[in-house]
Write a structure and sequence with these properties.
There is one protein chain. This protein is of the alpha+beta class. The chain is built from four helices and eight strands. It has an eight-stranded mixed barrel. About 3% of the residues have low confidence.
C-alpha cells in the first residue's frame, strides 16, 4: 500500500522589527544609552547650586539682621567719640564747617516722634557712610546753621534709623546738637515725589531736611523706589555758617545712588572667599573634617562678611 507523501506547509518568517525613525535613532536612543550626565558632573552642579543658595541666604541674613548689629556697634563708638568732643574737657573740637573728613561725627539728633534718640550723624552720604548711621550731606550747612541742612538716613538696612520718618506729623519737634550748641526744629511737612517744594528761606533762617526712601512694590519698602523728605524749620536764631563747604558732592552721595567704587574691594573679596572654600574642601581629607572647619570657618566667615558688606554698598544708599 502506497502512502501519500506528507503535505509540507510553508510558514512565512516573522516580520522584522521596524527600524526606529532617523529622529528617534539620533536623538532619543543615544540619550537612553548614555543614561544622563556622569555622577561627577551632577555632584559638581549640586555643589555649585548649594553654594549659591547658601550665599544668597547669608546675604539676606546679613542685610536684615547682621547689618543692624554692625550699625549699632558703629553708633556706639561714634556716640562715645562725639560726646567727648562736646564736653568741656575738649571744647571746640567737634567739626563746625568747612571740609570735614568723611565718617566724622558731626551732630547728635533726637526726635522721639519718629524713634530717634541720641542718634549720631556722620559726615557723608554715600552708601558706605550710611551703613554707620544717618549722614550729613557735605555740600550743605551743618544743622543749626543758616540755610538748608540735609541729613540722609536708611529706611530698612543697617538699622533703618529713618524708617519712621514718613510717619512724622507737622508740629513734631526735632533737637540737634553740634559743636556750636543745641538747635530745635519744628516739622512743617513730609514731602513725597511730585509734591511742591517748600517756600524759599529768608536770609538768616535755617531748615533741616531728613531724607530717606519709601517703596512702591509688593515688597513694602524693602526695594525702595523713591526718596521722601521731612522738612523742619529752625526755631530761634541760626548759628554762624563757616565758609569752605563743598560746592557739590560725587554722584554716589546723591539720594538713591549706590557706590560703584565698592566693585573694586568686592573683586578682591570674592577670590578670597572662593579660595577659602576650595582649601577647606581640599584639606578635609587630610586634616579631618572637624580640624579643617575649626581652622577654616573663621576665614570663610570673614570673607563672607567682606563680600556682603561691600555688595551692600552697591545698593541704593537710602535703602
Amino acid at each position: 500500500m502506497t502512502t501519500a507523501p506528507a503535505q509540507r506547509y510553508e510558514f512565512a518568517p516573522p516580520p522584522a522589527p521596524k527600524r526606529a525613525s532617523s529622529w528617534y535613532a539620533s536623538k532619543i536612543k543615544p540619550r537612553i544609552a548614555l543614561g544622563g550626565p556622569p555622577d561627577a558632573t551632577r555632584l559638581t552642579v549640586a555643589w555649585v547650586l548649594a553654594a549659591l543658595s547658601l550665599c544668597t541666604l547669608w546675604f539676606v541674613f546679613f542685610a536684615t539682621v547682621m547689618s543692624s548689629l554692625q550699625e549699632a556697634h558703629n553708633q556706639h563708638n561714634a556716640y562715645a567719640a562725639f560726646r567727648e568732643q562736646l564736653t568741656q574737657l575738649a571744647p571746640q573740637t567737634a567739626p563746625l564747617g568747612g571740609i570735614i573728613t568723611p565718617d566724622s561725627p558731626v551732630a547728635l539728633i533726637n526726635a522721639p516722634s519718629i524713634g530717634l534718640k541720641d542718634v549720631v550723624v556722620i559726615e557723608g552720604t554715600a552708601s558706605g557712610d550710611l551703613a554707620r548711621g544717618p549722614g550729613h550731606r557735605r555740600d550743605t550747612p551743618l544743622p543749626g546753621q543758616a540755610g538748608v541742612a540735609l541729613i540722609y538716613g536708611r529706611a530698612n538696612l543697617f538699622g533703618g534709623a529713618f524708617g519712621r520718618v514718613p510717619q512724622a506729623k507737622p508740629g513734631d519737634l526735632i533737637t540737634v546738637a553740634t559743636g556750636q550748641g543745641e538747635s530745635k526744629y519744628k516739622v512743617e511737612d513730609v514731602r513725597h515725589v511730585g509734591d511742591p517744594f517748600p517756600v524759599s528761606l529768608a536770609d538768616g533762617d535755617g531748615q533741616l531736611t531728613l531724607v530717606t526712601s519709601e517703596g512702591g512694590t509688593w515688597l513694602n519698602g524693602w526695594m525702595p523706589k523713591w526718596p521722601v523728605y521731612l522738612d523742619a524749620k529752625l526755631q530761634g536764631q541760626a548759628f554762624p555758617t563757616p565758609s569752605g563747604r563743598l560746592g557739590s558732592v560725587p554722584k554716589a552721595e546723591n539720594s538713591m545712588k549706590g557706590d560703584i567704587g565698592a566693585l573694586f574691594p568686592l573683586v578682591l573679596w570674592l577670590p578670597v572667599l572662593i579660595l577659602a572654600a576650595i582649601a577647606a574642601v581640599w584639606l578635609q581629607d587630610r586634616w579631618g573634617r572637624w580640624h579643617t572647619w575649626l581652622a577654616g570657618a573663621p576665614v570663610i566667615l570673614a570673607a563672607l562678611w567682606g563680600v556682603s558688606e561691600t555688595a551692600a554698598q552697591l545698593l541704593p544708599n537710602l535703602m
